[in-house]
Design a protein that fits this description.
Blueprint lengths: L1 H20 L14 E6 L4 H13 L3 E6 L6 H4 L1 H28 L1
Parallel strand pairs: 1-2
Length: 107
């Protein structure tokens, strides 16, 4: 029964992802200056990887990190690794911020 419900849901999911990838304001992603880390599992579904590909193409500040062995539920099944990636991102952003401020202070 549950499998039938999921099968019935697939056309909606496909339409949702198509709408997301062809949304009129997607180009605004290119204007985001802040560093962006996109986490995906190595076993992530192809349509989710396509979204990550799109984000990388749209903004050079997007960095993709792949969590080995993880799928869609990586934050639950691989929480230590995912948390480590998030902390790495925060540390990198903070470091970049301090370097930029230090350089601005010298001018």
């Amino acid at each position: 029964m549950r499998q039938d419900a999921l099968i019935d849901w697939i056309p909606k999911v496909i339409k949702d992802f198509e709408a997301l990838l062809h949304e009129d304001n997607v180009g605004r992603i290119a204007t985001i200056y802040q560093p962006i880390t996109v986490l995906v599992g190595a076993q992530t579904h192809p349509h989710t990887m396509a979204i990550a590909d799109c984000l990388e193409r749209l903004n050079p500040r997007v960095v993709r990190r792949v969590v080995a062995g993880a799928g869609h539920l990586g934050p639950f099944t691989m929480r230590d690794r995912v948390n480590s990636e998030i902390l790495d991102h925060v540390f990198a952003v903070e470091t970049e911020h301090w370097v930029e401020n230090a350089q601005a202070a010298r001018c």
